[in-house]
Amino acid sequence: MTPPSGRRRRAADPDARQRLAAALRRALYRPLAEDEDRVAYWVHHVRLGVLLTEFGGLAALGYTFLTPTAARLHPVLFAVCGLAILGAPLLLLLPLPAMMRDARGPVMFYGWSAGTTVLVVIGTRIDGGADSALICLLFLTLGFMSAAFQPAGVVVMGGFMVTSYLAVDVLPEPRTSGMFVAVVMAAFTTLCALASANLWESWDRQVLLLRTHETLAATDPLTGCLNRRAFLERLHTAIRGTADPTVVCLIDLDGFKAVNDRDGHAAGDAVLRAVTSALASAVRETDTVARLGGDEFAVLCAVPEADDAGALAERIREGIARVGRGVGVTASVGLTVVRAGDDDHEVLLRADQAMYRVKATGGNAVGGELTAPELWAPFTTGADHSA
């Protein structure tokens, strides 16, 4: 009878295989580019590779004419050189920018390198196997690979090159010189894999630094929500094209100055962080919460119905009143509809005016200046003092 532990190991095997397969996919088929600059880099790399292949094909062709070896004027070697010279430019007809963004990019490079290996190994065999100098062309391919493949890909393709050379060119008629070239090729593969690892690690660090910088540039350091610049960018995007009506809620805290004066700025900072949490709880993950400065916040939210906008604004007011109850902080909320063709600052001005009308009547309420009556009927909330 099979022990329970054996059954558990067998049951876990499929999961282990799936994890291994996923790890191999990540190691071998990682998309090469995520932005336009990186796409342009890899397309340029392909063009350089085509030129390198052309150079190798022409060099081999000259070799067949000028070198008194078994391959001199050999028709098959002519055909191999012609295939490389005429076939490489066809790669430029592929949809390279799109391919660099998914697994097709690595597959293309693997196929290209494998095809080059087959042609070189065949030419080397025709030229006398281990005694041929044509095998040097594979070192060019390995060098090109180190700038294109991930380390695992370099190892796999380098192993394929060494194995193909040994199987086709060396082992049928073993030569010490051939074994020496194979050992050097294996060592060069290791060096190329290390260079590839350094290249990708450097790129990943650069991407991480850029993303960190972008996050810091768009984030309010005290509360962790977006800052004014990032909010205006999202507002501008919403103005340019939004399928559903979008609203901006401008929030100004009532009684916040008294907290700073009475309890100090540390207490005021704690209130601002609590308000940020309340705003995050009142909206969806897809909505935008930002601190515009001081005790002023803004929310950008797509809402299909006017009632949704009113309910959103009221949730914001109630949430802030709840977290500010102990220190006497409430919120005046000004709401406006975003329309196509609006100016960013005009939208904020309308919300600001609505908010100040609420504040002038005592605060702790929602006020709305409807700028798109053709979209929504006028609405009010139970706590609206600005009508």
Strand and helix layout:
Elements: H1 4-28, H2 36-66, H3 75-87, H4 96-99, H5 104-126, H6 137-146, H7 151-170, H8 176-218, H9 228-240, E1 246-254, H10 256-263, H11 265-282, E2 288-293, E3 296-302, H12 306-323, E4 330-338, H13 344-360, E5 365-369
Parallel strand pairs: 4-5
Antiparallel strand pairs: 1-3, 1-4, 2-3
Helix pairs in contact: 2-3, 3-5, 5-6, 5-7, 6-7, 6-8, 7-8, 10-11, 11-12
Give a quick precis of the structure.
This protein has helices at about 5-30, 35-65, 75-85, 95-100, 105-125, 135-145, 150-170, 175-220, 230-240, 255-265, 265-280, 305-325, 345-360; strands at about 245-255, 290-295, 295-300, 330-340, 365-370. It is an alpha+beta fold. Strand 2 (about 290-295) and strand 3 (about 295-300) form a beta hairpin.
Folded structure, characterized:
There is one protein chain. By secondary structure, the protein is an alpha+beta fold. The chain has 13 helices and 5 strands. Helix 6 (137-146) packs antiparallel against helix 7 (151-170). The chain is elongated and about 100 Å long. Mean pLDDT is 85; it is low at 370-387.
